[in-house]
Design goal:
It is built from 5 helices and 18 strands. By secondary structure, it is α+β, with helices and mostly antiparallel strands. Strand 17 and strand 18 form a beta hairpin. The radius of gyration is 21 Å and the shape is globular.
Length: about 325
């Protein structure tokens, strides 16, 4: 069985790993406001749960399917070898800040500086790994985080995806790279009912990204995540309270008890495990352990997800609202 949480060869040698981290840190620190970058946190943007108030307003979004894969940052460093020639390497960085060496085609356009793209690793037809790019942070050493979303997507297409398609597949490639398909909000009905049922990998919702918003590290109100109510989940830190009772903790300044549960079934839990849970009949239910994460959701995120569950905005409501917007544009 293919494990998306182990996408390649993990870099275990401490010196190499620290050097890679320093290259990543330097990119962000050179392009972030003072004290805004935290070296200890996964340097990615996180969506906010879709709530009823997001049905109103004038924000322009692009929409894509929410892939049920594993989130990474794709890091392509510009590292010359001993002969002064660029030794093309590619890494996926997970939420635990582990570096996984993978083999993708890297166009010459990207060999002028370090590049970082926001990606999802998915499994097509249960057998083929595929990287789906959905944002650009850095391309060939140039920061794109302050650019609008159209420009960030164009950078991913023209600097990486399109040149690789034109060149054809190389023999050493271990995973192919694609740009996610995006739609106007007026096309949500078509996306949900006609496109998503045919997508070869699992998907469980929609992602709305504000066109004019910058890329923000951490929680980003410019990115909205919508899932059907029954598919909303939270990642908790487990504290064993007794033989049959567990505290579900989120992260504030420290770990905070958010809820509790018992009768977990056949999944063995230990202190410190990170688990993904859904809410069934007002009781939290463990779906799986999250070996790719070392911290739970923040308390703020947990409260937002709970609000989203209680708001229970349906796909029909979303389609109806944006169809009204479409009719207003036409008239």
């Amino acid at each position: 069985m293919i494990n998306l949480e182990e996408p390649g060869k993990e870099i275990l040698e401490s010196t190499i790993k620290e050097n890679l981290k320093k290259r990543v840190w330097s990119l962000f620190e050179e392009n972030s406001s003072e004290n805004s970058f935290n070296r200890q946190k996964f340097p990615g943007s996180h969506p906010v749960s879709f709530a009823r108030e997001h049905l109103v307003g004038n924000t322009k979004y692009l929409v894509c399917e929410k892939s049920d894969g594993v989130r990474y940052l794709l890091f392509i460093p510009n590292i010359p070898n001993s002969r002064g020639v660029n030794d093309v390497q590619s890494f996926l960085i997970d939420r635990k800040y582990r570096f996984w060496r993978i083999y993708i085609q890297v166009p010459s356009l990207l060999l002028k500086g370090d590049s970082i793209f926001d990606v999802e690793l998915v499994l097509d037809h249960e057998t083929n790994k595929r990287i789906l790019i959905f944002d650009t942070l850095f391309s060939a050493g140039i920061c794109f985080m302050r650019n609008n979303y159209f420009e960030r997507l164009q950078s991913a297409w023209y600097s990486l995806v399109y040149p690789v398609r034109e060149a054809g597949k190389a023999s050493k490639v271990s995973v192919e790279v694609y740009l996610k398909d995006f739609f106007e909000t007026t096309q949500i009905d078509y996306l949900w009912h006609h496109i998503m049922p045919k997508i070869p990998h699992k998907c469980d919702g929609l992602i709305f990204t504000a066109v004019d918003a910058e890329y923000i590290l951490g929680s980003n109100p410019g990115i909205l995540k919508w899932k059907p109510c029954e598919l909303n989940t939270l990642d908790f830190h487990i504290k064993v309270a007794s033989d049959n009772s567990y505290e579900l903790c989120t992260l504030g300044r420290n770990l905070e008890k958010f809820s509790s549960m018992s009768n977990i079934g056949c999944i063995e839990l230990n202190d410190g495990d990170i688990v993904e849970c859904n809410l069934v009949n007002n009781k939290w239910n463990v779906l799986k352990k999250r070996s790719d994460k070392s911290t739970p959701n923040s308390t703020e995120v947990a409260q937002n997800v709970l609000k989203s569950i209680n708001d229970n905005v349906s796909i029909d409501e979303i389609i109806s609202v944006f169809q009204v917007v479409k009719r207003q544009k036409i008239s």
